[in-house]
Amino acid sequence: MADQPRALVTGGAGFLGSHLCERLLAEGYAVVCMDNLITGSVGNIEHLFGREGFVFVKHDVTNYIHVAGRLDVILHFASPASPIDYLQLPIQTLKVGSLGTHKALGLAKAKGARFLLASTSEVYGDPQIHPQPESYWGNVNPVGPRGVYDEAKRFAEALTMAYHRFHDVDTRIVRIFNTYGPRMRAGDGRVVPTFITQALDGKPLTVFGDGSQTRSFCHVDDLVEGIWRLLNSEYSDPMNIGNPAEMTVLQFAEEIVRITGAGSEITFEPLPEDDPKVRQPDITLARKVLGWEPRVSLEEGLARTILYFEELRRRQA
Ligand code: UDP
Asked: I need a labelling partner for 38 at 20 to 30 A (CA). Which of 16, 60, 143, 287 fits?
């Protein structure tokens, strides 16, 4: 189809990237999925191979990106995204947020494509304003262990706004809060896959610190809907997308034990350095501009995610 729109998703074989590839295909886009497979995996996209208009390109976007033909949108999702991953890959994390974003923006400029940056609630650091509105500038430790991710994403936002203002590139910035769902990597160290895996193994759930720190968890289907609406909006300043339903990590552990019916105990381990004490998105803007809000309850979303991990284990067994 000559008039079929075409998208590039960097990090397309990752957790969020793979869901976005699916959504774009469903919306009639041809999709170029690009990933260097450091933290992404072919298993996340193998069901898309053979789908008309879908291609996978193994490439590290910190190097010059070549894509022949038209591109209408670029969704820049390449980056390690779990604290364990970016602590183990600090230089790659800084490079993909800086050099990778530069290459992806350069491509957007050359193709006249709309560009959407995957940013993060981590730009708010350990926040002193709660919940966090987009107008808050954040409280980030640039030289702490999480600085490699936080500062890379803050730089990526600055670069995106510079391309928008100086080169007139049509840009969007989504600040993604904790998101969970199928295709998270079991060993990525994030709280959702970790607790679910521990519960399914009948092992203790490892709560860090006293578990009083809070997070607000959004199901991936809600996130993808929010991103889709933002992409199609005319809004070019950063926008929070996340679920404002906040809970402590200890409450979350108890919820996982209850839903899985596991007999697991809860144990306490040291809190990682600079672990934010609270986090909750203010989604007033997304409600107003996109008419968006999350629909999937934690109960339902977790049930679906647990099912995914159970099926994965059956296949691997
Ligand atoms: N956490 C925990 N046990 C784990 C993994 C994480 O208590 O096994 C805590 C972590 O310290 C943080 C919260 O759960 O307070 C969310 O951690 P995650 O790694 O998912 O992402 P973050 O929100 O910190 O970026």
From this structure: 143
Instruction: Write down all domains in the chain, each with its CATH number in brackets.
Output: 6-179+219-241+278-295 (3.40.50.720)
Ligand 1 centroid vs 159 CA: distance in angstroms? Answer: 29
Minimal-distance CA residue to ligand 1 atom 18:
190
- Residue 43 makes CB contacts below 8 A (sequence gap 6+) with none
Q: Is 247 helix (H, G, I), strand (E, B) or coil?
A: strand
Pairwise CA distance, residues 165 & 210, whole Å: 45
DSSP 316: H
Per residue in 274-311, pLDDT (tens digit) is 999 999 999 999 999 999 999 999 999 999 999 999 99
118's CB contacts (< 8 A; 6+ apart) are: 11, 16, 75, 76, 77, 79, 174, 176
Q: Are 36 and 14 in contact (CB under 8 A)?
A: no
- CA dist 219 and 73 (Å) reads 24
* 180 is known as an active-site residue: no
**Phi and psi at residue 210, in whole multiples of 5°?**
-90, 5
Residue with CA nearest ligand 1 atom 5? 191
Place of tokens 């993604």: 176
- Please, what's the b/e burial string for 278-300 (b: 16 or more CB within 10 A of its CB; e: otherwise)? bbbbbbebbeeebebebebebee
Residue whose C-alpha is closest to residue 287's, from 140, 146, 133: 133
Structure confidence at residue 241 as a pLDDT band (50, 70, 90): very high
- 56-86 residue pLDDT tens: 999 999 999 999 999 999 999 999 999 999 9
Q: What is the mean pLDDT of residues 211-232?
A: 98
Which residue's entry shows tokens 């980030």? Answer: 140
Task: State whether the beta carbon of 249 lies less than 6 angstroms from ligand 1.
Answer: yes
Angle between helices 220-231 and 15-26 (to 10 degrees): 60
CA distance linking residue 65 with residue 44, whole number of Å: 22
